[in-house]
Amino acid sequence: MTTIALLDYGMGNLHSVAKALTRVGADVEITRDAAVIARSDKIVFPGVGAMKDCMAEMHATGVSDAVRQAVFNKPVMAICVGMQALFEHSAENGGVAGLGILSGDVRQFVPTQGIKVPHMGWNTTYGMDSSHPIWRGIAPDTHFYYVHSYYCVPQDDALIAARCQYGHEFCASILKDNLFATQFHPEKSHTAGLQLLQNFVEWQI
Questions:
Q1: What is the CATH number of domain 3-92+103-202?
Q2: Is 80 a catalytic residue?
Q3: Is-catalytic flag, 164?
Q4: What is the largest CA-CA distance in the chain?
Q5: pTM for this structure?
Q6: C-alpha distance from residue 104 to each of 44, 157, 158 (Å)
Q7: Is 187 a catalytic residue?
Q8: Among 8, 50, 127, 163, which is most buried by a count of CB atoms within 10 Å?
Q9: How does it assemble (predicted)?
Q10: Of the listed 54, 57, 171, 187, which one is catalytic?
Q11: Catalytic entry in 54, 80, 152, 171
């Protein structure tokens, strides 16, 4: 059975993510223990809340160092604010430095006629490479569940693994080597979300 360290830094939607991962066959441990993280097969890096608070807790608990180390040696999945934290800088809270694992920044949606912020609810996600094992069984145009006011802008468009439209097109997912991240919440996305989590659990690097 695949062992997954679900990173606990006081900000993630931990129990719903843990429940979903367990449902698709993973052995999940909610932890911030470096030894547990090191011996786990894979890492899931969730995130809910304000970026400034998330980064402060990541640094205080050592989760930031754990993520930096894990991305070099095992599969890592980041969700929502976890994805945003991978980048160099976020506009949230007046400007917050991210982990800098990926080049790029995080920008805020601008409310316009018909566009409310945050972006909340089901939205069509598209552009996935169906030949990649992480997208196995996922339709080319799939609805996933979103809750966010900010979106990632990678410096390298080649990192973008899926896209979505909300006022304008934005990056819905990134994929680089053993690092996979989603702006949407797989754990809230029913059948498609569970399929995606199962694909991550079974993903061989």
A1: 3.40.50.880
A2: yes
A3: no
A4: 50
A5: 0.94
A6: 21, 10, 12
A7: yes
A8: 8
A9: Heterodimer of HisH and HisF.
A10: 187
A11: 80
